[in-house]
Here is the input.
Amino acid sequence: MEFKNYFPIWNKLNSEQQERIMEVLQFHRVEAGTHIHDSGAECLGLVVMKSGQLRTYMLSEDGREVSISRLFEYDVSLLSASCVMPDLQLNVMIEAEKDSEFWSIPACLFKNLMDESAVVSGFANSLMSSNFSELMWLMEQIMWRSFDKRLAAFLVEEVAVEGSAELKITHEKIANHMGTAREVVTRMLRYFQNEGLVKLTRGSVEVLNEPKLRALAE
Here is the structure.
């Protein structure tokens, strides 16, 4: 399908605005593991997902990662275009977790459209509100929720995302998602294994009792 099928407000734009977007629209095809954007890079712009899976995350001064959100088919994100919202400075990184395809609208054009169109401005504000809510939720999880519940919720989410109980993911990768040390993840996974919730093998975690994990997460 074409870009217009993935961009929620396409039909609310006039023909001149649509033409300006198509003139500068960029299509990206990246392999899993590709680093797409970091805080020191030039604004990538508005990202519109066609297929695959991207991860947005933040990086602490000591190099520790914590995931903010994931982008799937039809998702739209402004986190890679913080220059569009100068009052909201976020040091956001983006990587491809799977082979992915997406479009980007250059930040300069999107900023111009925001300034002249109430539809685009409202859409951008809605996106940033959603992104801010995700950040607040993440902070609440880290500050107030015990790690066993967070890890259980993460594993349940992974099963849903991958469509399989056998997760090809390392302890290091889980730690990066959750903003903690690999050793902390390993200890808790071993506890889960002792409780019969998961089975650990090299490079993978198999969920054996999703209902109990879900109950723990809730």
Notes: The chain has a mean pLDDT of 88. The longest strand covers residues 65-71. The chain is about 40% helix and 25% strand.
